[in-house]
Amino acid sequence: MNIALIAHDKKKNDLVSFVTAYKNIFANHNLFATGTTGSRIINETGLDIHRFQSGPLGGDQEVGSYVANNKMDIVIFFRDPLTAQPHEPDVSALIRLCDVYSVPLATNMGTAEILIKGLERGDLSWRTFVNGKSGGENAGTKA
Fold it and tell me: What is the reported pLDDT for 90?
């Protein structure tokens, strides 16, 4: 599975801790992250991660492009709902794309934990049929 990891500045520590706690699960998947978040996770976990630009410089849009092209299976985006973000339209667009293409999206640790536990059990295996590897034209449906 292709998994995007994104965190606003005040949530980066939480995401690094989360990925560290579930490192054994994440290690079995293709990981993508925006700039600084990706660097932090690489430095603290040693996991192999493809890094996009930082969010404000287009990284959220790069992840969105992967979602729109059925190349992303899960998005974990620890958002800071209490701080105004200068690139909020990009964040909203990414969330919208996840909804349009039925890509599971976690915006907080509780939801992320449920997704990762489901991934570990194989509950998200239906994504392999809709993510472009086995018929992306059926995006959003369980094949």
Answer: 80
